[in-house]
Specification:
Blueprint (H helix, E strand, L loop, with lengths): L8 E6 L5 H14 L6 E6 L14 E5 L20 H9 L5 E5 L3 E3 L4 H4 L9 E5 L12 H5 L8 E9 H6 L2 H11 L8 H9 L4 E2 L23 E3 L16 H14 L18 H23 L10
Parallel strand pairs: 1-2, 1-4, 2-3, 6-8
Antiparallel strand pairs: 4-7, 5-9, 6-7
Amino acid sequence: MTAPQRHDRAVAFCCDRNYFRLALFMVRQIAFHNPHRVFDFVIASRDDLEVPDWAKPLGIVIHRIGAFPDGVPISRCKGSVAPLVRLMMVRELAGRYRRILYLDCDMFVEGGDFNRLLDVDIGPHPIGAVLDAPFFYENSYLAKEFYKAGLPPMPYANTGMQLIDSIAYAEQEVERRSFDVCITHPETIIYTDQSLTNMALRGKFAQLAPCWNWQCNSRLLLVPFRYPVFLRHFIGGNKPDRHSGRMLEARFNLAYREFLTQLMPEYLPDLAPQGDPSPLKPREIGKLVMEHVLARKVMAAAIDRHGDPYLAIV
């Protein structure tokens, strides 16, 4: 740790040097929306990161992640193993923080009381999380991992946002059970840490309101006109910092552009160009309308289940 503990709760990110600027962008957004916060900011990494001068007043803690546990066959995971360090982060921070709100760096903060969120009752579960995107537009969804393992349909979390109870996470050995999947069900590792965590928990997590991890930014972009969302998550490859897609609001790319211009201009060349400002074409509007019509009942039921965003389904 590079800064002393101030609180027993933290909002944490886990990233490498390439995503560091996005983590800083989110920290700045969260601080703006939570001026009376009673939680720390932690950025965990295996890289040597240094907080820039403009961000030092935010009190960001940089935590250097240790080595993978002995015997973990990480070579069985496809693609980058960088996301796997998230599983170790909880153990390494548990001595300081009783509650950790983990967030991916490809998110956009719209609001929400993070102080209240960090105290949401998640029952006996080690984590609270939002269901993965297909649960909001498909009548019956069976996650690919469960299908490959011959398991029945059950709740499946998008682990880009996790409200973590450190004690329960340790007592229920979530880290060990997740890494064990590398040995017991390597064929199910599709989304690295997300696959491992879901195979370990098998539906046993507290379900949080979709506003805390809104993943339908391109598919159901009209829903937030009526349903306020707090955290937008740009899942998949359609991200405003690297792809100014036609179905992404222009304001996201603009927000990154203004942030980098003012505070980290050296990264501006890496930002995606601003998107096409021309109006949507009839076929694009038609596709948008059809997706909303098909998802309406499923989405409405999901929203109805979470009348209070500060209550979890346990």
